Amino acid sequence: MMETPLPDQLPTALWEIAVLNLYLGSVVLVIGLIVVAIVIRKNGRFVLSKFFMISTLLIVISIPVSLFVWRIWDLEIDIMFGPIHLPTLIAILIIEPLLIKLFGFSFIFEKNTDQFPSDKEIEESIQSFIEIPSYRKLTEDIIQKTADDDLGQLVFNNIEILMEDDPREEFDIVNSLSKGQQMIYSTFWVEAEVYNGGFNQFYFNPSGVFAEMAVYGFKIIGADDLSDLMEKANTIFIENRDLLEAFNDGTAESFIESYKDNPLNDLDHIFNDLDEQIDIKVLKAKYIRENIDEFIQ
Q: Residue 170: is it exposed, middle or buried by C-beta count within 10 angstroms (0-12/13-18/19+)?
């Protein structure tokens, strides 16, 4: 008896392979998106538009990369390590750090230098962040017991807690606080943004509304050079506002393009050099201790 030959198997459509790959790598992708969210939050405030752009690019780029890794996979171990799809994991480990760096973020607070922080600096930074407590109400006793290096962050954390149940706009809330609290909040965002993406990122993000407040903030703690530099940056931004704001359309391409021939770029290096000379944490701590009534509730 003759056997009936099986019909030729139709080739699997590429989109079906991509969907299967996306399904197998879903656990890794979710972890990758969580990491993106954590990195953005640790670098300052959470910016939804940047999270969306990085996440979209991460997913779109990881699919062909992981498919390529899957295609050339010749290791004896299976491509699935429990729920972890190894080709997708390899793709994420390659792509995610590049995207995060491209958008001006870093895995810790770091200055815009050509050198990466040492393991010790990373450990100290993370440990310091974990150990600084947050209080809804600051007292003289709490402030006096806090080290100079942690005092500015302590006050900043307190301000953020005070904002949680306040329906007003962020700037309106800060503008109603004491001059010392305004100094802490405004200069914090200047430092955080400039260290990660330069003055261009500071004005590009909502933090730019604190630009004038930061000039006075640096001035009252005695950081006159930083105050003058901040004032110069404000002047340059105002003179080039129309040109720079034309790039602010919410896309990653425009944000990257905004750095080309940007007159603010040169100020980033000056800011970093001044910070090397000025112990800003000590200056802030000195002001807080000498004007403690501005910070206690």
A: middle
The per-residue DSSP string of 266-283 comes to: HHHHHHHHHHHHS-HHHH
Distance between the two ends of the chain, CA-based, in angstroms? 95
d(CA 66, CA 35): 19
Q: Which domains does the chain have, with CATH numbers?
A: 14-102 (no CATH), 119-294 (1.20.1420.60)
- Give the residues across from 54 on adjacent strands: none
Look at strands 84-85 and 80-81 and give their pairing.
antiparallel
Per DSSP, which regions of 24-161 are E strands?
80-81, 84-85
What pLDDT is recorded for position 276? Answer: 82
**pTM beyond 0.70, yes or no:** no
User: pLDDT digit string (tens) for 260-285?
Assistant: 889 999 899 899 889 888 899 999 99
Alpha carbon distance 297, 288 (integer Å): 14
Beta strands in 47-165 (DSSP E): 80-81, 84-85
Amino acid at 45: R
